[in-house]
């Protein structure tokens, strides 16, 4: 059993890490939560029924781990989302860039699931469309279409 768990870890740790990175936007947090995900998976492996792919099951665990982390942090604020804005040449440009970035995050937040998750995975985690489809149990074409539709909705919200 130990060899099987090690094999699962080697095969899926990178995908779980990338998934958590797309949610957390922080490499250290993603690494820590990946370890927590596999810790929980080891202790609940007997509950895995094989209905979905093991990668999907692991990402479901990872999502729950991430939600627990968010509750622990009392959710991120809009200020935290804009801390990594690069310095501009003038204070006016910095203010405009911060406002635009905040508007983008607000627009993304208006999306329903799974569109919001696809956008976060694609933009923040640098997942390919095939990886997004695999993690979410859908096809690559579904991921592409969902991302395209999400972009259209975001553009509609931003143009208002």
UniProtKB/TrEMBL annotation:
PANTHER family: ECF RNA POLYMERASE SIGMA FACTOR SIGL, RNA POLYMERASE ECF-TYPE SIGMA FACTO. Keywords: DNA-binding, Sigma factor, Transcription, Transcription regulation. Residues 103-154 form the RNA polymerase sigma factor 70 region 4 type domain. This is RNA polymerase sigma factor, sigma-70 family. Coiled coil: none annotated. GO terms for biological process: DNA-templated transcription initiation. It comes from the Bacteria. Belongs to the sigma-70 factor family. ECF subfamily. The keyword DNA-binding applies. Gene3D superfamilies: 1.10.1740.10, Winged helix-like DNA-binding domain superfamily/Winged helix DNA-binding domain (1.10.10.10). InterPro entries: RNA_pol_sigma-70-like, RNA_pol_sigma-70_dom, RNA_pol_sigma70_r2, RNA_pol_sigma70_r4_t2, RNA_pol_sigma_r2, RNA_pol_sigma_r3/r4-like, WH-like_DNA-bd_sf. It holds the Pfam family Sigma70_r4_2. SUPFAM superfamilies: Sigma2 domain of RNA polymerase sigma factors (SSF88946), Sigma3 and sigma4 domains of RNA polymerase sigma factors (SSF88659). GO terms for molecular function: DNA binding; sigma factor activity. Residues 8-75 form the RNA polymerase sigma-70 region domain.
